[in-house]
Amino acid sequence: MEEQIDWSSLSFGYRKTDYNVRCTFENGKWGELRVSDSEEVTMHMAATCLHYGQAGFEGMKAFRGKDGKIRVFRMDENAKRLQSTCNGILMAPLPDGLFEEAVKKVVKLNERWVPPYESGASLYIRPVLFGTGAQVGVHPADKYEFIVFVMPVGPYFKDGFKATPCCILRHYDRAAPYGTGRWKVGGNYAASLVPGTKAHEMGYSAVLYLDARSKKFIDEAGPANFFGIEGNKYVTPDSESILPSITNKSLMQIARDLGMEVEQRPMPEEELSKLDEAAMCGTAAVVAPIYKVDDLDENKTYQILPDAKPGPVCTKLYETLRAIQYGDLEDKHGWVYVFE
Ligand SMILES: Cc1ncc(COP(=O)(O)O)c(C=O)c1O
After folding, report:
1. Of ligand 1's atoms, which has the minimum distance to the CA of residue 222?
2. Which residue lies with its CA nearest to atom 4 of ligand 1?
3. Do 238 and 101 belong to one domain?
4. Which end of the chain has less Cβ packing within 10 Å, N or C?
5. Pair 141, 179 in one domain
C-alpha cells in the first residue's frame, strides 16, 4: 500500500523505510551483505559501542533528477572517511568496495522512498559501524556490525535559502587537537549536545567552535565545516580537530572552477570581521550562510551580512553544487553515481 507523503514538508528525522542492509565482522572477517526489514539490533550488553564509544557513522544523500534517475553524491569519499574512522578508533575496516555495494543496494531496495525532483527533498543515507563484541576491559571488540539505512528528508531551506546567526561558547570543546574530531565518531556528537542545545535555545543555529588548544582559531560550526569569502577568496580552516567535510572539499573545487582563490589554513577568530560572506557547509544544507557570529563570553559581535539575505558568492556556490547533485549541471569531476 502506497502512503501519500508530502515530501517537501518532511523534516530531518528518522522515518522507517522498507529495508536496510547489514554485514557482520566476526572470527576475523566480514561476512556477506544481508538485507533486513527489521529496525532493531540485538547485541551483547558488554558491547564496546555501548561502553567505550566504538561507533562511527557516515551521512550522505541520493537525489532524483529531472530525468527521474537517482544520483548518489561522492560515496567513494564517504567510504574513505569511514575507513579512516575505523582506523582512528580501532574498528575492523570494511573490505574495498563493500561500502559502495551496500549503499547501492539499500538505495535500490528503497527506490520508492527517493523523493521526486520537484520537491527539493532527498534520500538521506546513514551508514553506521560499531563494536558489538563483549569487552569489560578497555579493548577493541572482536565483533562489529555495519548497517546502512535510509530515509527521505525534506529540503533544508523550507522557506527559501537564508542566513542564520551562530555563537561562540568558549567553555565547551567538541574535540581535542589530537583527539577524535577528524573522524566521524559518535562520541564527538555526545560532546556537542550540551553546547548545541544551549545555542539553539538562545536562537543560534550552531556553535562556532574555536580550537581547543589556544581558543584563537576557528575550527568548525556544529555538525558542519566553516568557510568565509574575502573578495575573490574562499577561506576555510585547516585544523587537526575538524571533520574533513566532503561538501567543503567539493565547494573548494567549485570555487576554483569559478576562478576564485582557495585557502585552507588556520583562520583566526578576528578574521570574521574581514569576511564579506560566511557559511556552514555539509551534507544537510550544502551551504548555510551565516549573517553574524556572537562571541558570547567576550561580548563581541561579528556582523557579516546586514540581514538574513545570503550574499552572491554563497548563493552561487549553493546553487552550483545542488545543480550537480540533482543532475542539472554537468558532473565534470565525476562526483555523481547515476543509477541506470
Ligand atoms: C562535525 C561535522 N563536520 C562537518 C560535516 C560536514 O561533512 P559533509 O560535508 O561530509 O557532510 C559534518 C556532517 O557530516 C559533521 O558532522
Report:
1. 1
2. 224
3. no
4. N
5. no
